[in-house]
Design brief:
Heat Shock Protein 90, flat, 2 domains, 3-stranded antiparallel β-sheet, 259 residues, 8 strands, alpha+beta, Actin, Chain A, domain 4
């Protein structure tokens, strides 16, 4: 083999090696898709064959995320379980652990059994009904969570929460992180709020309408939800107004977020 032939052969081998290590940029990299399955926890008084409202107990139905990149579903699921555990009386939970919602539900039923033994003539029926639904899974994940409960007292309570997270990391997205332009978002939210509750655009006296904003200054709610088309501002009862006024819900177009 001549010197020129050896050089040509070496060049061909080098090209082959380089080609074998080159990633074809035209081929998209597959990202695991987040999906979900339905789950439920139903615990009633053992000696009652009627409906929940007749027997007392807990009925919670919610989605459990699966798939996606490693750890993403687990991070979001922990927040779902934490909401229901807290609503069942477990208090604040360890953010690194998965709360035992079933154990919390069983404790509620056990407490109700003890109450009935102590007060057999009471007509109170303790119930907790919980629901969870997927609002959207795109670049963001949003899950609507709610509980309607009566555990004694003057009236039942409705509590709504939204779990909003980055779909690629599972990390929570705060209200300040939702919009590309947080100042414009705040202004649009305040204008929509005033319109919803019948206030003039130039009226800033929220207390005159019965609202409890600190220093009479508008603020975003603790819970903001996202759908494919909308942004939902949800103020729970007691958050900015008395129970008699109920929750306050404001809708905005999702385009306001700039994402």
């Amino acid at each position: 083999m001549t010197r020129h032939q050896r050089a040509a052969l070496a060049g061909a081998v080098l090209i082959a090696l380089v080609s074998s290590c080159t990633v074809d940029e035209s081929t998209p990299v597959e990202v695991p898709v987040l999906s979900y399955s339905d789950s439920s926890i139903v615990i009633k008084m053992s000696d009652c064959e009627g409906q929940l409202l007749e027997c007392g107990g807990v009925d919670i139905r919610f989605p459990v995320l699966v798939g996606g990149r490693t750890g993403v579903a687990d991070r979001i699921n922990r927040r779902i379980y934490a909401f229901f555990a807290e609503q069942l009386g477990s208090g604040e939970t360890d953010p690194a652990a998965v709360p035992d919602v079933r154990a919390a539900a069983q404790l509620v039923v056990s407490d109700f059994v003890s109450f009935k033994q102590d007060f057999p003539l009471s007509e109170q029926i303790w119930t907790v009904e919980g629901t969870g639904t997927i609002e959207t899974i795109d670049s963001l994940v949003c899950i609507y969570l709610s509980t309607y409960s009566y555990l004694g007292g003057a009236h039942p309570n409705l509590q709504v929460s939204y779990v909003v997270a980055d779909a690629t990391t599972g990390e929570p997205i705060s209200s300040r992180q939702l919009a590309r332009d947080s100042v414009s978002f705040q202004r649009a939210a305040e204008a929509a709020f005033k319109s919803e509750v019948g206030m003039d655009a130039n009226d800033n006296d929220y207390s005159a309408k019965g609202f409890w904003f600190n220093d009479n200054q508008f603020r975003l709610p603790e819970n903001i939800g996202i759908t494919p088309d909308s942004v939902i501002l949800h103020y729970n009862a007691y958050e900015i107004a008395p129970y008699s006024m109920g929750p306050t819900v404001i809708m905005l177009p999702r385009t306001i977020l700039g994402r």
